[in-house]
Amino acid sequence: MSSKNIVPINEERAFEVQELFFSVTDLKGVIRFGNEVFTRISGYDEPDLIGKPHNVIRHPDMPRAVFKLLWDYLESDRPIAAYVKNMAKDGRYYWVLATVMPIPGGYLSIRLKPTSPLFAAVKGVYAEALSLERTVEKETGNRKTAMEAATGLILEKLAAHGFADYDAFMSEALSQELVCREAQLREVGYTAPTRFGAAKNAYGALEEQCCMLASKLTAVFSSTGTFKQLSEELSKKYQAIQELGPSLQFLALNARMAASRLGDQGVVQAAVADALGAKSKQAEGFIHSLIERMTPLQHATNKQVFDIAVARFEADMAHAFAAELKDAPPDSHCLRVRESLTAVTDELAKRCGAVMESMQLLDYETHKAQIDVQELITRIVEMKAIQLNGKIEAAASDAKSDFSVIFEEASRYIEGGRTDCGVLLDVLEVSSDEINSFRQLEPELQSDLRTMCDTTERAVSGGLEAVPA
């Protein structure tokens, strides 16, 4: 049945916050597999979904611009997270946060029930985008133009909520949803039903391994708060630090001009002004080096936050799917099921590998940024001493008011720069500590991933054999 033939009903199709589901499609978005939770919530029997385009569950309330964004990311070989309103077979709706990523020969989409405060805001943005999309298409008769207009509106609204781009938004959305989901599960006392040491087949063993891996990735995920703070501070301090050198050089020039007006009586003041100009010039080099590093470091940090969140999500999905297969009848473990299990665990291993590789780069960039900030602080301390001398000379000068104003303003810039650098250095040091903690966990994580992949291979080649003692 096509979604075009279904009449939407303004009634939600309920599912629980602990329920995760996924689907695997080919490169054209045709469904190859969906797990039991997906088929149950969508209301379709599995044969009605397999071989159908994924838009069989598309809800007419969804702006097409969101799917354009999704395909733009996927066709650039990049993962994406997006809120999506779907329509079940009976016309009822259900919302998900979908994280979709390229896999060999297609795409993997894993979904959860959205519950964060951000979700409510997004629903309003989508409603505005849909209205604009319909209006523009009606006026122009051009669907592409309508989608572009709606995409622009979505990005504009996200920017108004403080997100520089869609990357920043989806990273925060996934992080928030995972945090809210975890909090709700704790509140109701929910724990995943895994009996350690009781596995009777490879699927049971895989369930245990994925559960332990998810637990470790939960600990890693807790570090993303530090990385998000680093990204926020880099963004906040960028302009102020960039302006520090030129501003102080301009003040030094003004002080030099004020000194020159005093003739021979301004020799000392001129020397102070020249010293401030020279030190601010030296600081300029370190400011330039730090500024060049700040934007790439912020992008690397944002990407790392997203990749860690995706890995955390995938580990929960792999655990849930292994549990589902462990208790399923043996004759249900068809080729599609085994291929889908491999797709989920392979993607998890790949994502964790990317996190480990990126953490090395983040370690290097963070260390270099710390050096730049420390060097800049040294120059700022030196400029502070010069500024104090200037203030003393201003007090003794006939041009007292001119020098006082200039060196009071210099004090404001210097103190502001020192404060900004101090905040940056603190968060860089905390980030370095988190990175070091992760690096210590790496060997254990790599071993767990190898074991998971080996068990997956054993499961898909004959998962009902007894687990070796």
UniProtKB/TrEMBL annotation:
Claim: Ubl conjugation is one of the keywords in the record: no
Domain PAS: 24-77
One Pfam family, short name: PAS_3
Protein's UniProt keywords contain Oxidoreductase: no
InterPro entries per UniProt: PAS (IPR000014), PAS-like_dom_sf (IPR035965), PAS_fold_3 (IPR013655)
PROSITE patterns: PAS
SUPFAM superfamilies given in the database record: Methyl-accepting chemotaxis protein (MCP) signaling domain (SSF58104), PYP-like sensor domain (PAS domain) (SSF55785)
Assigned keywords, A-Z: Receptor
Entry protein name: Aerotaxis receptor
Organism field: Posidoniimonas polymericola
